[in-house]
Amino acid sequence: MASILSWSVADFKSLGQADLALPHLTVLAGANSSGKSSVLQSILMVAQSVTRGGAIIMNGPLVRLGEPRDIVREGQSAVELRFLVQIDAGSPSEGPRPKQIEVSLSLAPSLDGVSLRPSAIEICDSNGSLSFAATSERTRSADVESLSKGAAHSGATFLRVTTVSGRRAPNRMYVGFVGMTPTSLALHFDPRVIERVVAAALSDFVGSERLTYEVAQELSSLVPRRPYLREIGKAELEEKRSAQGVSAWWTPKDLTSLSEDERDALIARAASRRAANEWAVVGVRGSFFGLSRSVGHRYRAEGFIEELLAGEYALSMLMLGSFAEAIEEFGGHVKYLGPLREEPRVVQGAWDERVDALPVGIRGELTAEVLTREKDRVTAFHDWNDHPHRATLPEAASMWCDYLGIGDHIRVLDLGKLGRGVNLRVDGTERDLTMIGVGASQLLPILVACLSVERNSVVLVEQPELHLHPSVQSKLADFFLFARRDVQFVVETHSEYLITRLRRRIAEERTEPHRVQVLYAERRGAATQVRPLALTAGGDFDEWPDGFFDAQEADVRHIVRAVAARMAKERA
């Protein structure tokens, strides 16, 4: 298993640089149009791409970014993404492996400008002793064309490997990507090496119960059964099977009718023809071996991969595979709730509109439906005093609604084809959302989304404070801090009250500074820089940038001066 511990993005839209440590709660603050949302958009682009297993999706269900040239910062050639990846220890038999790797992935517009593709990748372990680098520069178009012919690599992007552990890589070695996920390593080998490995792989299948449909098809394409049987004087076997209407592919029964020498000769001929292509393509997760001429038909030859990829190359495969696993896992865990949540309605939307990464819809339109569908599912959560609880989703949401002061009980109304309705009990009277006010309809989707997601989710929320009273904004900080300790939150906000409550909880020792990261976005020339503001154990920041929640303080100073001036005037 592998997982992403931190996330960095550079040259994305207006962003110069942003580094997210991804603790329990990350807060993004800054002025309007300072670039905060671009940080979230970079994560959403990755999430909607890797979860669909294909090309990099610029315009999808989570975010719409326009054309590839629109997201690369002016004057730059590519977007830079960096990840810190944790790798599990593995079994002792697998030998030493890095515990953490740092990955830098560049994404650039294609030559025709219609898609975004990987243009470079660099990987190194935490102490720098292992490294791997590949680039689109100096990539041979003839090689790429040859590698792309296989069905499994149709539409893939290939980067030429330049160095492995500080040394120059073999002359024609490539890493293949589907979207931004590395999938394979391709090497141009001596045909004699390929022939030996293919022969060994085929021998493991031929004449045994392990002969699969794909291997039989592959063998038939290399050495057709009918000509071979005719050549060795066993044409009567072919005539007999043809009369019975049996498939023209080799089958276990066909092969067992051959002598050992005849089978060996068949395998040698097939391996020789297969080796003529010279390309070996190996999945980065070490699960298959194949050749690019017909890469869709794969030999499962785990015992022979080491012959082609030993030592440092095997570790390169491990690092590429770990990154592929980590980015897919990360993308699958991302959940999102946008800033413009729906106005109060008596009836809300249908379940058919649901997207996995949008637990209550992008605007909270499925909140009532989720409460209805999952009304009996027990969820584990904590209250504002950080005490653990287990309750149904409506009960958990009701408890937090009561603390936040918008109601003390939730009841969902099933209105059949019309959809679902939500009533909140306020001061002993049950009311629908249109009778309570906008604040409740804005807050309820946040509570339901965060309480309903799976553990280890990464929940992105934009402007949760919209239409909320300052006291509720403060208490919302408690929700993000305590409600789901098994979830990571990234919250973009303008709320001084929310951040002040976080500082208070740290000062009260109700939470630890390392569980919270506050990032401040500010324009510096043509680029946005996002920098961390370190929190001390006393809940204070190590610095207060200009413009960071100082409007109130400035107004108070002006009020004091005005009052002092008026008093001085009256005395005079």
From TrEMBL:
Domain DUF3696: 513-556
Pfam family name, one: AAA_21
Domain (ATPase AAA-type core): residue spans on this chain: 439-499
Protein name: DUF3696 domain-containing protein
Organism: Microbacterium psychrotolerans
